[in-house]
Fold:
Amino acid sequence: MSRGNRISMGLVVAAAVAVSIAWSWPEPSGMTVGNPAFKSLGQMAFGPGNVLFIGDNTGAQVLAVEIADQARGTGAINLAGLDAKVAQVLGVAPADLQINDLAVHPASKNVYLTVTRGAGASAVPVLLRVTRNAERPIEEVPLTNVKYSTAAITNAPADDPSARRNPRTSTITDIAFADGQVWVAGLSNEEFASSFRRFSFPFGKTMETSTLEIYHVSHRASETRSPVTSFTIQQINGKKYVVAGYTCTPIVAFDVAGLVPGKHVVGRTVAELGAGNTPTDLVPFKRDGKDVIMVVNNRRPLMRIDASDVATGQALTTPEVAGIARATLEQPTGITQMAELDATYVVVVQRGANGLDLKSIAKSAL
Structure:
């Protein structure tokens, strides 16, 4: 081959390499470098390797994004006027945004927020990071040129904006990562709509679904169409459970070993926390050497239950029975969301007289 031909061939190869880079190469983890397509950003959970799992209800998918947060924070994180400061960063009024969820980065201990700017067809989903940097406490996390992968929810309910409550918005009501799997609670299009879905990570093509049934004490009936609103996966007395909260407000235990893909599973209702209320977060942690679960409610005070009581609680099958004991905390008030920050603190979004604040609260105070 002549020198001229070798140069021409080299240019062709270089051009091909440049184009192939633009095509986004798959990563060994199954992730791709590029710009993920999504329509909404809702519930979140961090997994290993700095991977953040985010629910996209409108797009009927789970998005996995590597968040390589290099900062290293310690101790409490607090930000007064959270909603006003977020609105300033996004260039809108506080009334024009919705904070959907918060999660704590496992390494940096920064707080991540999924936020919706605006409403309806003009709504824009945004991922934000709250840090301990007093000069720049809030920054947008661009979801461009990132390592990502997606898992489609193939049995999502139909999108019906004309419905009193659009079922598509409850496709993903909560999300968690445990034992190499992404757990997703929400509604499906199946006969028994309430369900848990599981995806192995790295994402493959298989989605496992178990449909759910519970006895709803305040509704005086068994139900299969009310979704789990919040859940946690916890090892209790040597056995792994999903502890789930539902609107109006039963707390239900599911034995993980019994959540067999393709099966219809009846949960064990262990507590009734009161009608007209929704549990927005269930947060497990150790307090005074005991495993407890904090229940954040939208219309009732914070409640604390002992994990051991969940494991041993009798199934409630009749009306007007409260079930296992709970400690009701009259203070602090106005908590709307909570996540574990570290061994000492939880971090919360708290509503006060002047809007929303981000606060760290010592576990010992709860």
In short: Residues 193 and 225 are 5 Å apart (CA to CA). The longest strand covers residues 208-216. The mean pLDDT is 91. The helical segments are 3-22, 82-90, 307-312.
